[in-house]
Amino acid sequence: xxxxxxxxxxxxxxxxxxxxxxxxxxxxxxxxxxxxxxxxxxxxxxxxxxxxxxxxxxxxxxxxxxxxxxxxxxxxxxxxxxxxxxxxxxxxxxxxxxxxxxxxxxxxxxxxxxxxxxxxxxxxxxxxxxxxxxxxxxxxxxxxxxxxxxxxxxxxxxxxxxxxxxxxxxxxxxxxxx
Length: 178
What we know:
The chain is mostly helical. Helix content is 70%, strand content 0%.
């Protein structure tokens, strides 16, 4: 019984001595920055959507203030369209806000578990430069890997792996990781 408790205590002590592998901090920081950039794009789109809804509402208000416009706007679909655009803009902003809250909670938990900073870092450009250098300290010539479908153009017939230069860059990337 005493030996089992001793083994359990030793196991817990070893678990507390865990140290993250070298480079993990920078890779997590890069991941955070890529997620943050995606969030900023979504927020910008939601803000634009809200601005467009406000402008449509203002146009409708001006239209209704005219004599002919009051009659036409009460019988037209423009009120429904403006109302729908306001609801959609509000929904988009709520989704972005919830996503931000979830992301911040998740990254703070990861920071706490790893014991190092992730959110406060040197920025995306520095991290990409630091992480995508070959063993000689020279850049691999690799551009950033697309972080989402947003970066791929519709109708792009080229494969992500592709051939030629893209394939070489991907193989260098995989060699760097291993």
